[in-house]
Amino acid sequence: MKILEKTISAQGREILLKGCEDYKNILVIGVFHGDEPQGKYLIDNYLNNYESKLLFIPCLNPDGMAEGVRTNSNGVDLNRNFPTDNWKLTEKNEFFGGNSPASEVETQFVASIIEKYLPKMILTLHAPFKVVNYDGDAKEICEKISKIIDYPVEASIGYPTPGSFGTYAGVERKIPTITLELDEECPVEDLVEPVNKILKLLEDC
Fold first, then answer.
1. Distance from the CA of 74 to the CA of which of 81, 96, 141, 167 falls in 20 to 30 A?
2. pTM of the model
3. Which residues on adjacent β-strands are paired with residue 126?
4. Is 18 helix (H, G, I), strand (E, B) or coil?
5. What's the average model confidence in pLDDT over 168-196?
6. Is 66 helix (H, G, I), strand (E, B) or coil?
């Protein structure tokens, strides 16, 4: 597994895209929100135990993860910072989408990866809602994921998300985009087996 691309966060931490030379154009992203660190643990565990042809950004928000907060070090919710038709300037709370769309280096990195690598499917690992959410034409694969992890499939997360990654990738770019909301109360070690099975499922897509 090689480092295919990298950028540096505002606080100087590396953000990496990992993959092999003959990669399959399916992208898996962990840690959009720094207080949802499960994704990095689960991706790193998978890569330490299996060969993979998927593309991985194990930790998109290392600054937020280091501080244990949702936002990046600029106080921006990366999942509200994408340049979508519905992006809007909001109040500065934990859901603040930035002063302008794609203002953050993390957002710019993901957008550049999508433009260069043209993923045919994307999985993001979040917490805590215990659902398999999707944007775009991903219902069929989500139903398979649901059977593995025993979470319901939901087309909507239930509240407005202006500037979200799902809207950017799944709705506006027509890339099937899956948001796997993991159980934050479950020990992350107990999530290894189902998430490994889900990643193996994507290897076969």
1. 167
2. 0.97
3. 181
4. strand
5. 97
6. helix
The CA distance from 183 to 124, in Å, is 14
Q: Cα(70)–Cα(76) distance, rounded to whole angstroms?
A: 8
Nearest to 82 by CA among 137, 120, 32: 32
Structural tokens at position 198: 């889900």
The domain tally of the chain equals: 1
Q: Measured in Å, how far apart are the chain's first and last C-alpha atoms?
A: 19
Rounded distance, CA 191 to CA 76, Å?
A: 28
Helix, strand or coil, per DSSP, at residue 96: coil
pLDDT in tens, 63-107: 999 999 999 999 999 999 999 999 999 999 999 999 999 999 999
Pair 205, 141: CB distance under 8 Å: yes
Beta 26-30 vs 55-57: how paired, if at all? parallel
**What are 134's strand-pairing partners?**
178
* 153, HSE (Cβ side, Cα atoms, 13 Å): 15
Domain boundaries, position 17: 2-203
CATH number assigned to the domain comprising residue 63: 3.40.630.10
pLDDT of residue 158 exceeding 70, the answer is: no
